Amino acid sequence: MAEAGLDRVNVSLHSLSKETYQFITGVDGLERAIAGLRAAIKFGLKPKVNMVVLRGVNESEVWDMIRFGMKLGVNIQLIELLNIDPVLFKKYYASLGELERELQQKAVKIGTNVIHGRPRYYLSDNFYVELVRSIKNPLFCMRCDRIRITHDGKFKTCIMRNDRLVDFLSYIRSGASDEVLEMLFRKAVELREPFYKV
After folding, report:
1. Taking the domains of the chain in order of start, what are their residue ranges?
2. Across the strands, what pairs with 54?
3. Could you tell me which CATH class the domain 10-135 is placed in?
4. Other C-beta atoms lying within 10 Å of the C-beta of residue 170
5. Can you tell me the distance from the alpha carbon of 25 to that of 118, in angstroms, rounded to the nearest whole number?
6. Residues 6+ positions from 104 with CB-CB distance below 8 Å
7. CB under 8 Å to 157, separation ≥6 — which residues?
8. How far apart are CA 131 and CA 62, in angstroms?
9. What is the CA radius of gyration of the chain?
10. Closest among 76, 154, 146, 143 to 115, alpha carbons compared
11. How confident is the model at residue 146 (pLDDT cuts 50, 70, 90)?
12. Could you read off the pLDDT of 90-136 as tens digits, one per residue?
């Protein structure tokens, strides 16, 4: 992949416990995930670890994950659970507010992710922890530049919404031209609006 031009990867690693990893992901894959992370480092792909913090599941592991990242020289991105499934959200949502205050106190430097405007808390000159706090956060929405694709072939204009989908798969199956597909993509972009507003 590096030879093909890939220069960076994100690796989802929500726990360093085999049992907790399997509970979260549904697969017994912790060793493979860590092996993949080490391979990405070896080939110069500058991996970043993504960890979704879940109340009562892995929130007690946050500092273990941070120390793990520091040891490997891999930056850590801690992510609040999105409210996509209200039942799961109520059960597992953990605010990162207290952790952010701890990081502010421990940081040797505070920077910013230029693209998304998120704070980066440097715990050493070359290692940082970045927080993704999306809930009720207009700045998160304002800086979002993502368009997703659903399993059934639709452009999803916002991860939090299901009412502004733009079908493209049926057009592909009927032989639509590249111009038509471009028009559908542009339509999806035009439908975008912040979920959380100022």
Report:
1. 10-135, 143-191
2. 93
3. alpha beta
4. 11
5. 26
6. 110, 121
7. 147, 164, 165, 166, 188, 189, 191, 192
8. 12
9. 19
10. 143
11. confident
12. 999 999 999 999 999 999 999 988 777 788 999 998 999 999 887 66
